[in-house]
Amino acid sequence: MTRYRRLHPAWAVAVVSFVALVGAAGFRATPGVLLHPLHAEFGWPLATISAAVSVNLMLYGLTAPFAAALMDRFGIRRVVAGALVLVALGSGLTVFMTASWQLVLCWGVLVGLGTGSMALAFVATVTGRWFVRRRGLVTGVLTAGGATGQLVFLPPVAILVRDHGWRTAALVVAGGALLVVPLVAWLLREYPADLGVPPYGATDVVQPAPPTGGAAARAVGALTQAARTRPFWLLAGGFAICGATTNGLVGTHFVPAAHDHGMPETTAAGLLALVGLFDIAGTVASGWLTDRVDSRVLLGVYYALRGASLLVLPGLFAATAHPSMLVFIIFYGLDWVATVPPTVALCREYFGPAGAVVFGWVFAAHQVGAALAATGAGLVRDGLGDYALAWYVAGALSIGAAGLSLLLRRRREPIPVPVAVPVAAGSRAWSYRG
């Protein structure tokens, strides 16, 4: 066949996916700068407001393993467009709320389901269908974009809240989600074969087979088998602590904790944005190290260093961003999602072809940990008047996660877990392997 000479459409799909992922991450980050404004206007306890964030985080994780099944049945474009509409509804309807349960419904359920449909399963589906060459690179960029977007969006949202009120910020988020929908409908194609081209890096156009159903059942089956093994629980336990000490605690409560010490919310949000910028370098470096260093050792080091940094964080809060806090931000940023590449590698090592599916469930544990930490830290703040205990507990848990990682043993053969894998690049035909 004739070689595709122009820019391959896979790159347009990757760019649109990146925009959707960064946007979804930013939409999820917004509640972090709304805690105090909502508390001031409605008088709701911070623990109650944090519960909405917890529901959001939990649904974000639990939706991810099933998102691929939805995309297989209804198509990537429909699922992502529908997810963005859910985000817009969830954010826009908050301007009419009068009770705390409505916040849980809007920011927790609607935004949680919407952003969960644009999580790791979305990344895996896009890269699996559209890329053969550069698949790892694109996966890393999309993953980093999703993690970084959550933090980079914080400063402009904080400025909107400060200057125009939280309702304006919520409406801007809703409008931003709706603006991405036409871009998704225009450029987010389902398969390379729809355009008569092979996946990027492949030579043959592969026609997708008819849908074969059962994707959700296979995901549950993989969980059932993996949950019977020791490595799964060690990985899931460590990653749950990872979620608790990143999205759940720092991502949700760093801004209000800094504000408690007199720091303006816009300054605190800017510090979290710096975490996101350094996260890019940390994620790329971690991926490079994962190819060269035992992933168990990497996870042990990452978690131990994160624990040490969180133990010293309570003494760093002040009304201004002094040099010691900036050192923490740089150090913590490099470690923000550095745990992802070695965790993915270990899932592949232990579970073979089922590694990606099992990682989806490990990621769900990550979000459950994040949800528990978001609510728990709010309870600590309401009960004790500050967040100090939450930081100390998180530091101790991180050191415990280092221990869990070092308990993992090398395995020569993958644990047999049934999973459906593609027969050929770009195909929807599946075979069942155990």
UniProtKB/TrEMBL annotation:
In the bilayer, the protein is annotated as:
Multi-pass membrane protein
Q: List the transmembrane segments.
A: 42-67, 79-101, 107-125, 137-160, 166-188, 232-255, 267-289, 301-319, 325-347, 354-377, 389-408
Q: SUPFAM superfamilies annotated for this entry?
A: MFS general substrate transporter (SSF103473)
| Lineage: superkingdom | Bacteria
Annotated GO molecular function terms are: transmembrane transporter activity
The record's Pfam families line, in alphabetical order, gives: MFS_1 (PF07690)
Annotated GO CC locations: plasma membrane
Major facilitator superfamily (MFS) profile domain: residues covered: 12-413
Q: Where in the cell is it found?
A: Cell membrane
Q: Which UniProt keywords apply?
A: Membrane, Transmembrane, Transmembrane helix
Principal place where this protein is found? membrane
Q: What is this protein called?
A: MFS transporter
Species, as recorded: Micromonospora globispora
